[in-house]
Specification:
By secondary structure, the protein is α/β, with parallel strands linked by helices. The chain has one domain: Transcription Regulator spoIIAA (2-Layer Sandwich). Helix 1 packs parallel to helix 2. The mean pLDDT is 96.
Length: 123
């Protein structure tokens, strides 16, 4: 896991990338949140899509909701960046679209767009 802190609009964003899956379930999400916060002090975290279990992107598994609720409960704004084109579920596309309209969770195609979203609001 590589972590880099980027400052944009006076807001620190922890940009995390990993070739290994870091988030599989709620416990691994909590471990991830606490590790990144401890190492960076950031409440804005961007993570590459490959570091999240594919089960997350199957909405019927309910894993996405459980994991994202942890980020919200711990007041961590979270962006997932990468190529989502392989996912064809209309429900998932709608979920991602609605998430991008909010202030807490974003799905973006590039790390730069993820950083931009996370640095728009100071929470």
């Amino acid at each position: 896991m590589k972590i880099k802190v980027v400052k944009r609009n006076n807001i620190d964003v922890a940009v995390v990338s990993s070739d290994k899956v870091l988030i599989r379930d709620t416990q691994s999400a909590l471990d991830f949140i606490t590790t990144v916060q401890y190492e960076t002090g950031c409440n804005n975290i961007a993570l590459n899509k490959e570091a999240i279990s594919d089960d997350f992107f199957i909405l019927s598994s309910c894993i996405a909701g459980e994991i994202l609720q942890k980020f919200i409960n711990y007041r961590v704004r979270f962006a997932i960046y990468g190529d989502f084109s392989k996912y064809t579920s209309n429900s998932l596309k709608a979920f991602m679209h609605e998430s991008n309209k909010g202030n807490n969770v974003y799905f973006q195609s590039t790390v730069s767009l993820a950083i931009n979203k996370l640095s728009m609001y100071d929470c």
